[in-house]
Design goal:
The protein has 129 residues and is mainly β. It is built from no helices and eleven strands. It is globular. The N and C termini lie far apart (40 Å).
Length: 129
């Protein structure tokens, strides 16, 4: 089992910044990839960013490239999402998630919510104009 706890959400004005944290516990994350997803009211859960725990390779959805940065701290078993230049369209509940690397794992599968076995409770991010 992997337990994930998000924190750092809040209410900010457009152009502001937030830093989300996701603390993981339960087992080593060396064979996992970590992702951030978001879900706005009435919309599907959307992939935002991911990072592989062992290599630290990252990718982002196009709408956040250049504004968001995903990173991890191995010693703390924590993944972060630094969000800069926030816009109202970023408003959503943000979830961190963990998926186990196996033979079927590809760059594409790491963007799909169904490939992530473990999820945090979510943290609300609200951006006002």
């Amino acid at each position: 089992q992997v337990q994930l706890v998000e924190s750092g959400g809040g209410l900010v004005q457009a152009g502001g910044s937030l830093r989300l944290s996701c603390a993981a516990s339960g087992r080593t994350l060396g064979a996992y990839y970590m992702g951030w997803f978001r879900q706005a009211p009435g919309k599907e859960r959307e992939f935002v960013a991911r990072i592989t725990w062992n290599t630290g390779t990252t990718s982002y959805t196009d709408s956040v490239k250049g504004r968001f940065t995903i990173s991890r701290d191995n010693a703390k078993n924590t993944v972060y999402l630094q969000m800069n230049s926030l816009i109202p369209d970023d408003t959503a509940v943000y979830y961190c998630a963990a998926g186990r690397i196996d033979a079927s794992t590809t760059l594409m599968t790491m963007t799909r919510a169904e490939k992530y076995a473990y999820w945090g409770q979510g943290t609300q991010v609200s951006v006002s104009s």
